[in-house]
Amino acid sequence: MTKLAKFIESTQVRNFIIGVIIFNAIILGLETSLTMMSNFGGFIQSLDKICLLIFVVELALKLVAYRFRFFTNWWNIFDTLVVAVSLVPSGGSFTVLRAIFYIGSVISTKLFGASFPEWFGTLGQSAYSLFQIMTLESWSMGIVRPVMEVYPYAWVFFVPFIVITTFAVVNLLVGLIVNSMQDAHHEDEHAKALAHRDELMLRLDAIEKKLDRLSK
What's the whole-model pTM score? Predict the structure, then answer.
């Protein structure tokens, strides 16, 4: 492992990234407050951009350190997709989901990795397993119940994770639908405004011609 890879995988850097993710999730929460945005909107958005910059730098360092091996880790691919989406306006909600997945991956790796290395042996494997659980694809008999045979209280972790992530995904989908409907409504209103303007212009033109005839 290179010095750069050791640096990236060090406990200090991991804890720092986790801290930034949690902080960014808080910032995104503040962005939903009209009061906070009206008073500190510029400052809050600047902090959000700083967090996103840190995530981009983290990915760049990993690409340099691991090169093609970077893409053999499912967590890196997931991380890249989330950061890429976050670079698009209104993509911040995905960062909240990222925070949940990252923290959940760390916790599940620590709790279940020793007994179930094929599912929770690494952060990447944990993230993939948690993604499967979130989609409710064979989550109960396939993963959760076998884990609960060894760790009876594992449901304390899995049930809240399923509830939170499912709620987050539903919110994202609802948000996308609402935004699409709002955009369609705005386009419709804009089209109506243009049609009304054209009608007014025709009427004004008719009035102008009528006045021109009367003045002769």
Answer: 0.47
